[in-house]
Amino acid sequence: MSTSRVSFAFGVLVFNHESYIIEHLESIRYLIEQYGEGMDFQIIINDDRSKDRSVALVEAWLAKYANLFVSVDRLYNDVNLGTCASVGNMVDALCAKYFKLTAGDDVYSGENIFNVIPDLAVHSIVSGVPLDLTDGVISKSGFDVFHSIAADAIYDQGPLLRRFKGISVNNAPNIIYQVDLLRAPAVRRLLGQFDVVEDLPLQVAIAESGSDASFKLINKVFVYYRRTAGSTYLVATSRFFKDQIKMFEYLIAGESSAVKRFVLMNRMYCFKSGVRIVKRLCNIAVAIYGVKCMLKFWGIRERVARFESDLDLEAHVRHYALIKGRAAAFMNASFCEVVS
């Protein structure tokens, strides 16, 4: 890649995404064609041993649009490695200066994601606010919006690790990490200890990387978040559970305060119970978070109102309709020739 041009890589995590992967790739094409003039692009596609036609679809799309990228990296796993090992391999393949990792069933919005590049020079982690994509419908989850903003208000001051030790909503599809931190040995070591939950190990390791580690929440929607039958928490429930417990144990072992360690142990116990009412009513961390929300309620509410005022939901609906239409046109014109 040219050292004189801004370089940006899209990382695509694929697992049984044949129904959605073309929408995802078309949303990447939109961003490059709309906002990417003068930039170099890399795409790294990791398929974690899909059992459907995901890889064939990816290849059909690349046959037509590979020219959008200076570098195309195909990482097709012979066996199911898990998300964390796959992410590590993608970071190894990374040659661009900036990198956005997203699952192949999510869809990029029409926002200019490249505008966050200056923020990544200052902040370790930059995030947008999520919109939901469920059954083909774009919608705003009041819960997700409120608690994304609440977490930012509550944990804005002090060490970044507080955010990830406490109750907080951090929408992984909308998060972008500094590339140098993703490559850091300590970050890679912690990521390598986990299986399918990649976001928490990355976030915790980055937060532990130094006192200047920081998180910036931007009042923009970068990715529409879709939960499908391919979502990690559905297809790898036991692996997801083990990773969550392992993260609790890691945080507990590293906590020097007896009180904070007890809160983490209580939270782990509630998580292990699997009982919703126990998770809510017996979880000390939830109570602490609730009190902090009440203390900062008016400031949080003001920020939520500002986000909702700036949000043009209909524009996002139109954008998704455009992407969905392009994906359907591609499937009709191209895929049938390759796979039929």
From TrEMBL:
It comes from the Bacteria. Keywords: Cell inner membrane, Cell membrane, Membrane. The keyword NADP does not apply. The keyword Acetylation does not apply. This is Glycosyltransferase 2-like domain-containing protein. Residues 12-70 form the Glycosyltransferase 2-like domain. It comes from Pseudomonas entomophila.
